[in-house]
């Protein structure tokens, strides 16, 4: 590399780093506009394992079967068998010697994760379009297909937190570890 190219490169690097010296943590450009709590309603629909944030509503697996057939089966098959390897929801075994098949029944540690994901992201072509009752019903149907709850068992804000998933002890909770 010629001396003039090296000088140009050094000058470019110096110019790029100069604005960083002496700046505060405040951004130079303010993006967006402030919003209030009312505008956030319905945006962050989190349903954590502790039961907080669960909406009113209820449903059983038998009620969820029809919703699943019309809103979910195109991607996940009529009984959660999937239409591709990444859409399988039923079966699996985390203890297999081969690569485990990670499904709702074999992998997810909390039933609230299923409920939360369906509520916010499904169906893929119309996220957040299911009512709370429909989400409880579809969640109950998936739990039933995986042998976790009975077909007639009602799932609601109180009962969802009590569902014990087969892989409940398969994860290490690091949320309270201070770094």
How are the secondary structure elements laid out?
Layout: H1 3-17, H2 37-40, E1 58-59, H3 61-71, H4 73-76, H5 111-121, H6 132-145, E2 155-156, H7 157-160
Antiparallel strand pairs: 1-2
Helix pairs in contact: 3-6, 5-6
Give the gist of this structure.
By secondary structure, this protein is mainly alpha-helical. The chain has seven helices and two strands.
What do you see in this structure?
With 179 residues, the chain is mostly helical. The protein has a domain at 57-160: Cytochrome Bc1 Complex, Chain D, domain 2, CATH 1.10.760.10. The protein is built from seven helices and two strands. A two-stranded antiparallel sheet has the order 1-2. Helix 3 crosses helix 6 and helix 5 packs across helix 6. The chain is elongated and about 80 Å long. The two termini are 44 Å apart. The mean pLDDT is 85.
């Amino acid at each position: 590399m010629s001396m003039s190219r090296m000088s140009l490169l050094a000058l470019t690097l110096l110019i790029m780093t100069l604005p960083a010296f002496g700046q505060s943590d405040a951004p130079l450009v303010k993006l967006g506009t402030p919003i209030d709590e009312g505008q956030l309603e319905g945006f962050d629909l989190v349903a954590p394992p502790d039961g907080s944030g669960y909406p009113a509503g209820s449903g059983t697996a038998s009620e969820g079967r029809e919703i699943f057939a019309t809103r979910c089966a195109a991607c996940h098959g009529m009984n959660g068998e999937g239409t591709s390897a990444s859409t399988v929801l039923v079966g699996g075994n985390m203890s297999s010697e081969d690569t485990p098949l990670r499904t709702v029944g074999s992998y997810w540690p909390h039933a609230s994760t299923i409920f939360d994901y369906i509520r916010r992201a499904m169906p893929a072509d119309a996220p957040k379009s299911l009512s709370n009752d429909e989400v409880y019903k579809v969640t109950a149907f998936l739990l039933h297909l995986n042998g976790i709850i009975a077909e007639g068992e009602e799932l609601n804000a109180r009962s969802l937190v009590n569902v014990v998933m087969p892989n409940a002890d398969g994860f290490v909770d690091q949320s309270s570890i201070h770094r």
